[in-house]
Amino acid sequence: MPELIAKPALEKAPLTLGTCRLEAVDLGPITSVALFPGQEKAMAKALKPLGLSFPDPNSLSAKAGVQLVWTGREQAFLIGVTAPDFGAAAAVTDQSGGWAALRLSGDKAAEVLMRHVPLDLRAAAFPPGRAVRAPLGHMSSVVIREEAGFLILIFRSMARTAWHEIEVAMRTLAARA
Amino acid sequence: MRVAGKGLIEREKPVSFTFDGRTYAGFKGDTVASALLAARVRVVGRSFKYHRPRGVLTAGSEEPNALIEVVGAKNQTPNVRATVQEVFEGLVTRSQNRMGSLRWDLLAVNDLMAPFFSAGFYYKTFMWPRAFWEKVYEPAIRRAAGLGSLSGRHDEGHYEKAFAFCDLLVIGAGPTGLIAALTAARAGADVILADEDSRMGGRLLSNGETVDGQPGPDWVAAVLAELSSLPNVRLMPRTTVSGAYDGGIYGALERVGLHKPARPDLPREAFWRITARRAILASGALERPIAFPMNDRPGIMMAGAVQSYLNRYGVASGKRVTLFANNDGARAVARDLMAAGVQVAAILDSRANASAVENCPVYLGARITDTSGRHGLRLIEGHHAGGAFKLETDCLAMSGGWNPTLHLTCHMGGRPRWSEELAAFVPMEGAVPGLVAAGAANGTFTTHGCLAAGHAVAEAALADLGLSPAKVALPRAEGLPYVVEPLWAVEGKGRAWLDFANDVTTKDVKLAAQEGYASVEHMKRYTTQGMAPDQGKNSNMGALAVLADATGRAIPETGITTFRPPYVPVSVAALGAGGRGMGFAPQRFLTSDQASRDRGAPMIEAGLWYRPSYFPKPGEATWRVSCDREVAMVRGAVGVADVSTLGKIDIQGRDAARFLDLVYTNTFSTLPVGRVRYGLMLREDGFVMDDGTTARLGENHFLMTTTTAAAGQVMRHLDFVHQTHCADWDVRFISVTEAWAQFAVAGPKSRALLNAVLDQPVQDFPFMACGAVQLGGVTARLFRISFSGEQGYEIAVPTRYGESLFRDLVAKAETMGGGPYGMEALNVLRVEKGFITHAEIHGRTTAFDIGMEKMVSPKKDCIGKAMAARPALVGPERQQLVGLKIATGTPPCSGAHLFTVGDKVGREESQGYITSFAHSDLMGACLGLGFLKNGRARHGEIIRIVDHLRGLDLTAEVCDPVFHDKDGEKLRA
């Protein structure tokens, strides 16, 4: 019986420039959870064991390394844990392999990312607990605020372009110093 | 020459640069213009049309004359304003718009022909012979006219784009902007202060005034020190806010590296999009020239510029300077010059009743009527209250008053208001929502007034922002009123320039009026006034005043042309930063990408994806050989192709089937679980949007497949339909294109190949079945579908296993006499089978056209159904999908038109066109798919193919579009 070998979306060594760091990360399972009409209570019940609640737009709910990130109308991504049984409360779709995750950290992270994302990502306007669907250059992304920077989800097929564009922004900003 | 003890340049930091091959010395803080003036270089450019020698006119971004080329290792930038370009060690510049040397420009012959080159000259002269325009006249005119030249190579410089946000954007860092920024910053507002100069301070760096008893530059330095110490302030020097747009968004161009030697990763420029809740326009004012005869000689400069060169750069613009002005403010220029030891020949005040008390001769009621000095001003002539005069002078500082720099307030359609008192246009309030003009930009021309205005508008902005103001004491400053008496033009024999950059004179404007171009917009286009790189900053006011005079109207009645973004030239390289070459669009890579490249497959772009074109084997000289082998391989054994690029949409919910019935023409609610159905989707206008298969994975769970090309469009369409037609339905969908890697396995040995990799062999798995299978413990999805006409499957695994499965499938396929196939073979296979792609459903074809009108279910409604039934969209007059059998060996002729044999070959006789083409070894012919008028009734007819582009004239037999396995026996095998 042949074994299939799993491969990550991006095989890149972390890049550090000044205080800014870019790395590819493995988030474990990613599951889209799309709430069906009128299923709020059932959803809340299903999420209770995880200590999560269904997030409002542009935000997330997190506990013990597991997060539920708003990604669209009545839709959120459960990241970092195998999805529990949501019964008839939600349409559940495995998205694990479809997204590449990049972590950008350091005190210039917001400045770097604002080369490509047309949103105010500075801590005052976009604190931890916030997450948005946003264009990253010409790509569609999910940007999640973390304490030390950002977690960026990008289509797996475009991961190389995303890495390249963020790397260029990092180098460009560093060259200004 | 330099004046000891003057200027803000860093004299301890000498810098050398070249201009036209000669090396010049300057200091850090100099512009090319100030350094050249210091070296007594008077001619720095040639004018646009007459090629007249020109010198530096201004000290800012509005400069019309001193346009130079900056030459770098990787780029050559034309039309750079020498008054903006800072010097740095190794800077290479040269003059432009000349033939031969700058001093002896051969095209200066144009100047002698000036009497003929009036406005409209080209329109009148080059009308005949008509054919001469394109071949003779236009190239000659273009050679003689125009400004800088391009290298003809790509600009490989590095550029940047960025976004910024703030509570308050302050545009301009003169006294108004500085006090406004300080007021807002102390109150805790998030402030961006942008100024186009390399050094902030505006006129306070040049006008010699004191603020709070200290020299202007010292006060500026203290304010900037405080601002830069505050975390809520971002200072953006060298940043020109170039446009005001909807939603409080401003475009801004930052010169990041243009003042430094190039180094890797350092951007030359950055284009910013700044979103501001409030904005203050403190952009100051522009001094305006006076159109007196022969006013364009090198050495004739703006008075404010002469003052800037003296006080900021420590440069005397002449040895013996004359001032010609119509206002009080300009007197300070003469006083500063005299205090610095520069001789002032005279003050020529155009007003009859101004003060005559100065430490130099003052002539009232003065007019200059002629000047001399080909390569630099020597002499001026004119008359004043006391009679005629002739004055030897090498620098004339002129001031016709000031125009508020209100351009940004007009970017959203606002028109400025005429102020009789200032003899200038001032901004209309509220012209740009959230933006307020203040200080000189609003017609306040004293430093005291500017400080007070800046403070007041900042406090108003703070109130808007819900912040309480902190205490900012208003500093003491000069407040003498600005008194001006308009003087636009002086009559005389010689030409009097209005627009130096485009060589437009008062005569041209009068001629425009005389010939009926009396509207200011028509005059502008007829004379080209205001259409040069300075966009009329120096000439608009004067030109419209002359036009008003010529047409007997008042200035406000005459109106002003529209100011549009950008305020200064913005390089396309900055706007498109990062978009050159492969940066143009994201690249999407398949999981099999490396495996395909390892096999030498040339990759072609399909949408944003890179897909293998074919897989060459040793000895295969052309793509055709590889393609034909791959086709035969699929028909005879088994082939593997990565089809992950097709859009995949997961649809769930109790109303999922109902939703599919709405978006597809055919019915999906009747599809059994574990089966796949082909579906056709229409746009709302009734034309075909996309086709594909949808599998029913569970009672309330479907997987839709779209074409690669329309994957995004279909997803958007579903969202649209859901939100606008059935938002309350119990249906949810999400793209899973990226979550699954999917491979086509096609050919008579396809089942054998699958069984070699599956944990449990497939037994009873009929055509159009689907289901879950196991592969090395991984759950995969198997679909019995075919785009080749052979027995075929598609197998999907989670993306992370894609590369592994592709390599395994290909290796096993090769053992079985098969292998991978690329896009070329895929195309031949589907053309042989008569399967359509977006070459056929290209947006102008209907279900009827492609022969699928029976797929539009009569039993239910669907998106586009009503519109598809419109009379002109069905019937024999429609061009219908047909197959074409063409002689083998024919070159590709997609796009060729079809004609009835014997008909004239003309646009109106065209019967249709070819959409797809393939060389088919199987059919022993070349095959085409195409659309032919009433085509389904014309099978068997011989049709003529004409391809003007490729020079082809052929015939073909019209037939059914399905060439291979018409009854689908192989598919179902």
UniProtKB/TrEMBL annotation, chain A:
InterPro entries: SoxG (IPR007375), TrmE/GcvT-like (IPR027266). This is Sarcosine oxidase subunit gamma. It comes from Tabrizicola oligotrophica.
Automatic annotation (TrEMBL), chain B:
Keywords: Oxidoreductase. The keyword Oxidoreductase applies. GO terms for biological process: tetrahydrofolate metabolic process. Residues 493-578 form the SoxA A3 domain. Residues 880-965 form the Aminomethyltransferase C-terminal domain. Residues 597-860 form the GCVT N-terminal domain. GO terms for molecular function: sarcosine oxidase activity. The keyword Metal-binding does not apply. Belongs to the GcvT family. This is Sarcosine oxidase subunit alpha family protein. It comes from Tabrizicola oligotrophica.
